[in-house]
Amino acid sequence: MAEEHKPTPENATMLQGFEWYVPADQKHWIRLQEQIPQLKAWGVDNIWIPPACKGSSKEGNGYDIYDLYDLGEFDQKGSVATKWGSRDELLMLCDAAQKAGVGIYFDAVLNHRFAADHKEKCQAVEVDPNDRNRDISDKYEIEAWVGFDFPGRGDKYSQLKYHWYHFTGVDYNAQNGQQSIYKIIGDKSQGWAKDGDVDDEKGNYDFLMGSDLDYAHPEVESDVIAWGQWLAETLPLKGMRFDAIKHYSEEFLRKFITALDQRYGEGWFFVGEFWKDSLTDMHAYLDRMGKKFSLFDAPLVYNFSQISKASGADLRQVFDETLVGSMPVNAVTLVMNHDTQPYQALEAPIEDWFKPLAYALILLRSEGYPCLFYGDLYGIKGEHPFPPSCGGALPKLTLARKLYAYGEQADYFDYATCLGWVRYGTWDRKYGCAVVISNAGPGEKRMHVGEDHAGEVWTDVLGWSDREVTIGEDGFGVFVCGQTSVSVFVNRDADGRGKFAEKFNDNIYGQ
């Protein structure tokens, strides 16, 4: 009996706390800090912040990384602050989040470097871009941007300066202005990472962009592991998101995570960007990482994209061949992120009408760890601005997850274009919810929510349906949703229902 009455753990939700076109005004950390109380109140528990290390310019998003140890502290690459703000402002954001009970996940860009301070001569061979194991030239001397002195930082935090032998490859020869993929060759260079240690796409996918770091070099390995520990002591973090993990050493990443676990405990959360529509490869990667690791569910995003672009697609196939369908504990589910924005020719843009359905599928079900996208919550800036998605309902879906999406799950996946499911609640989170989604005409589902709810009147927390559903003596009700829409029904007298009448302030830029 004591086992049954353990408190039900609260559902957790992550926010990707940026989009690609956030204004480069160095005020992002300040804006995010101001949002923390509101985000917490609406159900956001952890924020994945953008890469906070100095990029190649003050407009750089951080994926063009220059110096791991510069969090907006040193006058380098045209500015002291990064695009997002200063180190002090980042510390204030992290401290405010910690006090509010919101975790911060750091975006670690460890594959490559940009904006070297000087050129160096080295030996290299050109390789076939589609088969990096095939040389297409003899070895010859190139001039590469691979000298990193960090003059603004000097020796503070790390004394290591990077040279040609710390890198496996580059994509530009400054001697003749030629662009190609060059594998660096020399007595101190091992070439690409060994087969099996990086993804085998394009033969060996070690090289992605910029100046590619060589984690077989002991100085690189020790410097970056030391950076991870320095970062953990500098900022109160709850975890890390690792960029481009297909492209650098799995062996190194295991060492990096182990070093953090041993020194700071095992409470940190680690998730990797392994953007590939191959469930087999994702399973294999997680197996090799010992499964103490999560991946973003790229196959689910592809499924969302395909369904959203088709007329009357079979919704019952939405979880086929997905990570959340096969390894839900290791799956971070998402609808959009900075690499899937609709005006970019990138991975898998999702039609706007489908987003409320997709978010219901990741937020209100028992499997996976859902991640909201900043651009869907606050809108997207830049040359092609977009307003917040889901008709402003995304905060309500997130709040419904926090308050009601608990307990046993019963699926009503009996019709191709209309799905329903019920969460029965638990002993201490008793209300539960009933969800109906349709990607065609208006939807209707007769679903069982439990005899203990008999006589209750359930209504849609989103306010998109005005149907009042009285639960019968048998515990069943007939729940509906509109055309290409979603409804989330909960007892109209449930604790927390009043919160849904409030408005989430998505005007983060104060305009």
Give a summary of the structure in a few sentences.
The protein has 511 residues and is an alpha/beta fold.
Structure, described:
The chain has 511 residues and is α/β, with parallel strands linked by helices. It has three domains: 282 residues, Glycosidases (TIM Barrel), CATH 3.20.20; 105 residues, Elongation Factor Tu (Ef-tu), domain 3 (Beta Barrel); 93 residues, Golgi alpha-mannosidase II (Immunoglobulin-like), CATH 2.60.40. The chain is built from ten helices and 25 strands. The strands form five sheets. An eight-stranded parallel barrel has the order 1-2-5-13-14-15-16-17. Helix 1 packs parallel to helix 2, helix 3 packs parallel to helix 4 and helix 8 runs parallel beside helix 10. The longest helix has 17 residues. The termini are far apart. About 1% of the residues have low confidence.
Shape: elongated
Main β-sheet, spatial strand arrangement:
1-2-5-13-14-15-16-17
Q: Please identify which CATH superfamily of the largest domain we are dealing with.
A: Glycosidases
Number of strands: 25
CATH class identity of the largest domain: Alpha Beta
**Helix count?**
10
Radius of gyration from the CA trace?
25 Å
Q: How many domains is the backbone divided into?
A: 3
What's the oligomerization state? single chain
Mean pLDDT: 94
Provide the low-confidence segments as ranges: 342-347
Tell me the CATH topology of the largest domain.
Answer: TIM Barrel
State the major sheet: 8 strands, parallel, barrel
